[in-house]
Request: fold
Amino acid sequence: MRFDTRLVHVGQEQQDGTGDVVPPLHLASTYDRDAQDPPRWFYARGENPTREGLERCLAALEDVRFASVFSSGQAAGATALAVLARRRVIVSDDVYGGTHSLMGTLAAQGVEVRYVDLADPAVVARVFDDRAEGALVWVETPTNPLLKIVDLAEVSRRAHAAGAVVLVDNTLAGPVLQQPLRHGADVTLYSTTKSVAGHLDVLGGALVHDREDLHEAFTAHRTAVGNVPGPFDCFLVHRGLKTLALRTRCQVATTGLLADALRESPAVAEVRYPGLPEHPGHAVAARQMAGFGSLISFRYRGDVDALLRRLRLFANAVSLGGVRSLAGCPATTTHRPVPQETRTALGITDDLVRVSVGIEDPQDLLDDLDRALHGT
Ligand code: PLP
Reply:
């Protein structure tokens, strides 16, 4: 089965002979052991058929054996850190603000967290030294919110040579545009809240990989702490997933148009989008991604709050990857947990606006943005 067919079919197999083309939602929290032969289902914190259907589909999308889903992207991240963060974590410097908060929980456990610019080849060439043995390398690409590009094959090669494990938070690109495991990473993390579910109405997370030892460790941790998603949430994520390829193609096409329009606007000082030829990561993005994504960051020369209020189709809201277009100021929202001096040093300043492009008519979005940028 090719990718788009897997999106629709895997994990949706018929089980009960009714001919349902959509499997039933399994709501039971416990299972009658005597009704099973052989016994397989025990308690829903550990096993649930609706959840496992979604997991099969997510694993199939990256052509691997394992996926574990969680109650949110943060829950997936917490389990990944509990299993993989030993003495040291090396993290992309420009990551989702909540990832900074998650890393903050490691200090109490004596784990050293080092933020580095993994989008800079010179940094990548020197960061995996003797001390990287056993480290967890946490990569985001494109990064959030600056949309820097990390060369996944190069980071994975150097990290593995030093004895480190590589996890890629692939939430921004999503599995249609980028499959980190194909470039050598060990684990892909998703906030399925974003493009995977795609409709801005459910939270979820996932860890995808091909290692049996990790599968046992991730699911054992999840069962112990109980950060599982409920069956209805899994159903919603799986339903959204079926249209991911269609939505992604539409969003990427519109995002390219908006990036060009922003670049032409005198109200905009800088546009960051990996699809623009002048973006420093453009060549790497063209090599490792099947499209440049649906997020753009730009620096506005005017009053950012007023701009966000003037936008009508773009909701002034955090999150990304959904059917509805969103816009926001990362410095005052998603990246508030990042210390102010770090934000300033990275360039996450108050004039930076991030837009997430939805599936609306491209011309309506262009008109809305144009009107709001120029103050009407
Ligand atoms: N990773 C990235 C890149 C994100 O943007 C987010 C949320 O915005 C998360 C992880 C956390 O996901 P969730 O909100 O589902 O916990």
Notes: The first strand starts at residue 66 and ends at 70. Residues 244-373 form a domain with the Aspartate Aminotransferase, domain 1 fold (CATH 3.90.1150.10). The chain has two domains: 3-241, 244-373.
